[in-house]
């Protein structure tokens, strides 16, 4: 699957837990809705902090793998799967869709995450149901 360069960098950086490269896929003034219907995190530095904080909740983070993508103009919707382990070592799996909007320079100007982050939180906490 061919992804725009910044979106490819987003996913590649996630799979090696490179927070600097992951945040660099975003424009300096980007907005990141994580998840949808929440106020966006704004700016590359704030996005870097969000990603760094999220990774700290894992015992092991294997990253996000794109499964399917659909593009219309500067927008691309990517279905993805995430894998890792919670701090106790139990496997954690989740999935979602992120809709990216590219800016004039081809960087991620906005990203909106759709997914069940409550379920992910329960898995990270070691809850079974």
From TrEMBL:
<dbReference type="InterPro" id="IPR032710">
    <property type="entry name" value="NTF2-like_dom_sf"/>
</dbReference>
<protein>
    <submittedName>
        <fullName>Ketosteroid isomerase-related protein</fullName>
    </submittedName>
</protein>
<dbReference type="InterPro" id="IPR037401">
    <property type="entry name" value="SnoaL-like"/>
</dbReference>
<feature type="domain" description="SnoaL-like">
    <location>
        <begin position="7"/>
        <end position="108"/>
    </location>
</feature>
<keyword id="KW-0413">Isomerase</keyword>
<dbReference type="Pfam" id="PF12680">
    <property type="entry name" value="SnoaL_2"/>
</dbReference>
<dbReference type="GO" id="GO:0016853">
    <property type="term" value="F:isomerase activity"/>
</dbReference>
């Amino acid at each position: 699957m061919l992804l725009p360069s910044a979106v490819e960098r987003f996913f590649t950086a996630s799979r090696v837990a490179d927070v600097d490269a992951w945040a660099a896929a975003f424009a300096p003034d980007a907005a990141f809705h994580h998840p949808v219907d929440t106020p966006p995190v704004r700016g590359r530095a704030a996005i870097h902090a969000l990603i760094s904080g999220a990774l700290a909740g894992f015992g092991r983070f294997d990253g996000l793998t794109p499964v399917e993508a659909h593009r219309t103009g500067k927008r691309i919707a990517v279905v993805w799967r995430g894998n890792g382990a919670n701090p106790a070592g139990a496997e954690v799996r989740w999935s979602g869709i992120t809709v990216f909007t590219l800016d004039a320079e081809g960087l991620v100007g906005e990203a909106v995450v759709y997914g069940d982050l409550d379920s992910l939180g329960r898995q990270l906490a070691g809850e079974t149901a």
